[in-house]
Amino acid sequence: MEAARPVLGTGRVADYIPALAAADPAAFGLALATVDGEVHGVGAWEQPFSIQSISKLFTLSLALAVGGDELWQRVGREPSGSPFNSLVQLETEHGIPRNPFINAGAVVVTDRLHSLTGDARAAVRDFLRAESGNPLLDSDSVVAASEAEHGHRNAALAHFIASYGNLENPVATVLQHYYDHCALTASCRDLALAGLFLARHGLRADGSRLLTRSEAKRINAVLLTCGTYDAAGQFAYRVGLPGKSGVGGGVLAVVPGRGTLCAWGPALDPAGNSVGAVAALDAFTTATGWSVF
Ligand code: DON
Q1: Residue 201, domain extent
Q2: Is residue 14 part of a domain?
Q3: 183 CA to centre of ligand 1 in angstroms
Q4: CA–CA distances in Å: residue 203 to residues 36, 212, 220, 235, 268
Q5: Ligand 1 proximity of 109 Cβ (cutoff 6 Å)
Q6: Catalytic residue among 53, 55, 80, 86
Q7: pLDDT digit string (tens) for 57-99?
Q8: Using CA atoms in the order 134, 219, 84, 30, what is the torsion angle rounded to 10 degrees?
Q9: What is the CATH number of the domain that holds 216?
Q10: Which of 3, 108, 179, 183 has fewest C-beta within 10 Å?
């Protein structure tokens, strides 16, 4: 918390989704959950915020758990080196997004999850409720509507992908489910608990297995290389953990075998990652040595 304080409020709150622009740029929270399910926090660690792209790690995990490796024929797993909402690689790469965490890739994963489960938004919401133990966790319909209203880029991406035959469901349906899972509202506490399956090598809170050990390893690897977009190299350098950011200002990081950390601060750097959350995670891993390296 002390490490984050000097940078809180530096950076910009996301305003391309108008409903997010009202967030307090100086807010901050941090939660730490351990593999045995204990959770501790500082600051506003129990205050709900818009999870945005952190949802992409849950859609990917569920799509792989339910449908297996066929997904990888429709989305790659290389860092894009481009902004999270970029369209540029889609044309030369024939509608196959670089990785599941940029918006283009997440749209394909949402489409796959929707085909597999019949209701992508409910699959993500119900999983988060179960793992966090928070039955009230839900989507904010105002945020989802705001995003849809200002969603020209995501609509362009989705139509472009569909033009290559890489969507199975109607574009409007896929986008609605994508906006709804991005608009889920959860706290650092909820997200740290919900991410523990990746620290437990695939085991859920109730002890059942969501992913094989090897699948959990692979998801952590893609988080490390792609989870923070064109700043993934910088995040790996500073924090040394697999992590996923969202433009609501949250970052969820995994310490395999030990636990998870979720930090939140709404002001973002130019790549769309929280300035305060990354600073706090950097300081935490440097002080404790909790890292994959
Ligand atoms: O589609 C969007 O632009 C947002 N729902 C999610 C983007 C996001 O969170 C990028 N992450 N830092």
Answers
A1: 5-288
A2: yes
A3: 10
A4: 11, 8, 14, 26, 32
A5: no
A6: 53
A7: 999 999 999 999 999 999 999 999 999 999 999 999 999 999 9
A8: 40
A9: 3.40.710.10
A10: 3
